[in-house]
Amino acid sequence: MNDDYFRIKRIKGYQILDSRGNKTIRVKVETYGGISATGDAPAGASKGSREAIELRDQDGGVTRAIELVNSLINDSLRDFDVRNQLGIDLTLIKMDGTPNKSKIGGNTTIATSIAVVKAAAKSLGLEVFQYIGGPRIRYLPIPLLNILNGGLHAGNELKIQEFIIIPLKFDNFSEALFAADEVYKNLKGLVTERYGKVYTMLGDEGGIAPPLSKTEDALDLVYTAIKNSGYEDKIMMGIDAASSDFFDGNHYEIDGKKLTPDEMIDYYVNLASRYPLLYIEDPFNENDFARFSILQQKLKKSIITGDDLFTTNIEYLRKGIEMNSAKGTIVKPNQIGTLSETFEYIEFAKKNSIKTIVSHRSGETEDSFVADLAVGVQSDFIKTGAPARGERTSKYNRLIEIETDYGLEYYGKKIYL
Q1: Displacement of CA 145 from its chain's centroid (Å)
Q2: Beta-strand (E) ranges in 161-297?
């Protein structure tokens, strides 16, 4: 086949729905070789202030973004080779010309960027993860499953946004996932028994959202579900505090109390002394690099992780590395706006021994792309919600498919942290 086969013939935008029933953008890339592929833009409820800006209409729709895709982006990228990911992404970045993608929208750029990488893989007869990672791929990531929801992801009074289980000591990904699913079902049973079946309603990411207000009560429920399922020695726990959402500028309002930033350090240390908290994400507001560092020093065995702290931006990750703020970083492609910038971010993190957690958003679609991305970049972890709801299970099922067809090892088996 000649190079014309890989050249872009047309780029088209669609307005679709995400898992919260909100409008988002899908971009389709078609080549002269008859190949087509789509990319969807997810959306977060809890966002860092430094994230790439979504281009939205006043009513929340994305018709302006669609118009840009069908005109400016289509005209500018026509005849580009889909294998030239960097060239295409740099064109999008230059076309926007702002530091946070505010002109044409990070949702517009990431949907286009994803569609391009998928079209390139398809054109070459490769799986997306193979195209991204090449021959270095050996492992499947460890899943972080958010099985109990609070914060902006739920309708209860919990301030902590996510209560997470981490199936670590298993021989393969499928075994780890199915064990986590047992815990999830056991948790449903506990909530039904204590509060009634009506309170097994789900939060935005598929986790259960019982009528709780105190962090300790939620952790007790999750830990009990783990022990009842017989996985106390194999499944660890984690939380995503998303603490910027309950910080008023001076205090953190949590568990019916107002705590100072220094008191929050003791708060987390106390929790980690009572529960197997391997993972703590965004324990402080997005500007408090110093207290992230103090907590990481005090909890050397835990992976303190930045999401709002870094927003998939090398500038802020570099600062975090200089201050020893965290062992881990969330990777959300839509926070930065293109895959080329995402790849650069991941490479920088890995060079500095920062663990990577490729992540979904609370507003997702059924597209399983982040599963391929996590495998392709050999991420340590993947974070994509509870084992429920199609927009979450599509990612897990894709990882099972990859494991079954390509025999990749499970990263949890390698490290047993």
Answers
A1: 11
A2: 162-167, 235-240, 252-254, 257-259, 277-281
In whole angstroms, what is the distance from residue 391 CA to residue 226 CA?
Answer: 24
Catalytic hit among 127, 205, 364, 391: 205
What's the CATH code of the domain at 408?
3.20.20.120
Q: Is 383 within any annotated ligand binding site?
A: yes
Q: Is 382 domain-assigned?
A: yes
309: helix, coil or strand?
coil
Given 332, 355, 395, 413, which residue is catalytic? 332
> Mean pLDDT, the chain, as a whole number?
95
Instruction: For the chain, give the percent of residues with pLDDT over 90.
Output: 92
Report whether 251 belongs to an annotated binding site.
no
Tell me which residue range forms the domain holding 24: 7-125
Nearest to 124 by CA among 222, 3, 209: 3
For residue 177, what are its two tokens? 């996932």
395 belongs to an annotated ligand binding site: no
Convert the pLDDT of each residue in 347-366 to its tens digit: 999 999 999 999 999 899 99
**Does 153 show up as a binding residue in the annotation?**
yes
- 282 and 170 both lie in a single domain: yes
Task: Please indicate, yes or no, if residue 294 is contained in any of the structural domains.
Answer: yes
d(CA 12, CA 31): 12
Please name the amino acid found at residue 162: E
161 is in an annotated binding site: yes
Question: Does the annotation count 205 as an active-site position?
Answer: yes
Q: What is the pLDDT of residues 234-251, one digit of tens each?
A: 999 999 999 999 999 999
The single residue listed with the structure tokens 């840009």 is 68
Residue 68 one-letter amino acid: L
d(CA 258, CA 252): 6
Of residues 162, 129, 127, the one with CA closest to residue 383: 162
CA distance 376 to 128: 8
Q: How would you class 398 by CB atoms within 10 Å of its CB: exposed for 0-12, middle for 13-18, buried for 19 or more?
A: buried
Rounded-to-integer distance, Cα 323 and Cα 289, Å: 7
Q: Is 355 one of the annotated binding-site residues?
A: no
Alpha helices in 256-367 (DSSP H): 261-274, 289-298, 314-322, 333-336, 339-351
